[in-house]
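A protein record pairs a chain with a discrete description of its three-dimensional fold. The following entry can be read in just this way.
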Amino acid sequence: MLLIKVIVKQLFKSGIIIFLVFLFIYFGLKIITNHNDHQIVPDLIGMHIDDLDKVIIEHKLRYEIIDSSKFSSNFLPLTIISHIPSKGDEVKKNRKIYLTLNPSGYRKITVPNLIQITKRNAETIISSIGFNLGEITYKDDIGKDMVLEIYHEGQKVSPGTLLPKTSNIDLVIGNGKR
């Protein structure tokens, strides 16, 4: 009988200790994790990187730039084009926001060798690598519809020159006359 009393007493003490530990963990985690203490993510799209620190500090958030390789002509250079979590999402204070920036300019690509190929092939090559077809002018030459010269912004360009992606490429093409 005495042994049963001792066992029951120890079980009761153990139960109380387990209950107190549970309460401590339950309420302690709510305080430590800022339970139900949320921030609304502001709309950062279109904001310049220089203006970002003020807004991030005001909303008690942090940020990290994850990507800046796709240039969009819809946004100014070094502005935010997207972010995760997105506008209006609820996050905890000091949460890291992942930003995608518009780079400072298009990456440069090599002008292909278009000399002495047909106009049709030149147009396909120009558009497939990311340039825009500009003006087409004709010049007296026996090679009908053959590319004779390449121009960019009024300057003659030789194959292999680096130009920003989406640049306009103007072509001088033979008209088939001597």
Remarks:
- The longest strand covers residues 132-139.
- Residues 2-32 form the longest helix (31 residues).
